[in-house]
Amino acid sequence: MSRTPFVAGNWKMHKTIAEAEEFITGLLPLAGAIDDVQIGVCVPFTAIQAVVDSTRGSSIEVYAQNVHAAEKGAYTGEISIAMLDELEVHGVVVGHSERRQLFNETDADLRAKVPALLAAGLTPIFCVGETDAQREGDETEAVLRTQVTEGLADVADEDLAKVTIAYEPVWAIGTGKVASPQQAQDACAFIRSLVADRSAAAAEAVRIQYGGSVKPDNAQELLALPDVDGALVGGAALEPQNFAAIVQAARA
Description:
Elements: E1 6-10, H1 17-31, E2 38-42, H2 48-55, E3 60-64, H3 81-86, E4 91-94, H4 97-102, H5 107-119, E5 123-128, H6 132-136, H7 140-151, E6 164-167, H8 181-196, H9 200-205, E7 207-210, H10 216-223, E8 230-233, H11 240-251
Parallel strand pairs: 1-2, 1-8, 2-3, 3-4, 4-5, 5-6, 6-7
Helix pairs in contact: 1-2, 1-11, 5-7, 7-8, 10-11
């Protein structure tokens, strides 16, 4: 099955509204009309409306960086799916390692968030990955098995392919380290096998991104791997030219 590559840029806690609009102004001539790669920008809550408005009529999609699974309630500081849906976002990044490590987000949290997003018609970019200590301890597959099976436990088999899974080795995020092509391929193939344990058809269709110090100079090699269907880009997604170059690499 041919899977459309999906490249998403995660801005993290960067860019004011003005800076976000300036970024989109720079990106649109470079990538706004590309239709053979799915392109997303994952922006801070404060800039979502401005970026949605700035990207109208282009191929660029807008994603939030977190969400709460509950419909409403006494969750001070949280944002609901309905609030994001009203802003016309396409989906949400959930389970990023920084959310897991710094804000104690658990597999149980993800188990609630992923199906709630799907029920609203939004795409979850569901992040999984191991730490340096876990890789050194030969625990990569055990960690991935737990994160994938727990996080997707309440997703119906027929909906699994609607989830985008981002493999992000924690040791490669913001460190300058990059998983070797073999490490990235092995991990993504293993993740696909976990989906296949539930549904062979979903495993063929589901898209698995690689994330972890993806840059223009290494993107083509990583994106050419058979089980890598795109990238979740961090630092290199903060400049339109760099991000567009990674999108172009996904077209090769």
